[in-house]
Amino acid sequence: LMIDWSHRSEDGPERSLRAYYDRSTRRESVLEGTMEQVDVDFQQHHRLGRHDLIWGAGYRLTKDDYAGSFTMSMDPAKRDVHLYSGFVQFEFMPVADRVRLTGGAKVERNTYTGLEVQPGVRAWWSVGDRQSLWAAYAGAARTPSRAEHDFRAITSVVQPDSLFTGSPVA
């Protein structure tokens, strides 16, 4: 299920809202389960003369429940993962069509790593009709997956009698 709404007016800000719900089922011999995901994002864009201000916020909830096997499982079997985010970006054009400066940051809070700040700065200068110079800096963070954090697997089993005669299975 997906909802996508946007509103534009000639003298006011542009706004958009996107939301979706997804449910999936995984059935394999070693791991099976269900996952539900709800995601909501809001964004607003203000034009301020030659300049732009964009900001937004979002939320994602992922709920899953996995039944594992002896060799593979998720620990814990059920988990709710929350991801909150917000961002702001300002584009400043001191000289129209010649110089553009952009700065902003995204802030996320997730279940696994907590608070992550991701700044970004860009500068662009049109040197001539067919040439330009630009530079950028961005700090990025990746949200870990459930499998990276909670997946458990037995990759090998010691055979009986392999350590010494009469040794048990490990």
Protein described:
- The chain has 170 residues and is mostly beta strands.
- The protein is built from one helix and ten strands; from the N terminus they run βββββββββαβ.
- The chain has one helix at 146-150; strands at 2-7, 14-27, 31-48, 51-68, 72-74, 78-95, 99-110, 114-126, 132-138, 151-153.
- The strands form two sheets. It has an eight-stranded antiparallel β-sheet, with no helix packed on it.
- It is elongated and about 85 Å long.
- 3% of the residues are buried.
- The model has no long low-confidence stretch (mean pLDDT 90).
Short structural description:
This protein is an all-beta fold and 170 residues long.
Please write out the topology.
Elements: E1 2-7, E2 14-27, E3 31-48, E4 51-68, E5 72-74, E6 78-95, E7 99-110, E8 114-126, E9 132-138, H1 146-150, E10 151-153
Antiparallel strand pairs: 1-2, 2-3, 3-4, 4-6, 5-10, 6-7, 7-8, 8-9
Low-pLDDT stretches are none
What order do the SSEs take from the amino end to the carboxyl end, as H and E? EEEEEEEEEHE
- On the 0 to 100 scale, the average pLDDT is 90
Number of H/I helices: 1
Quantity of strands, as a count: 10
Largest β-sheet summary = 8 strands, antiparallel
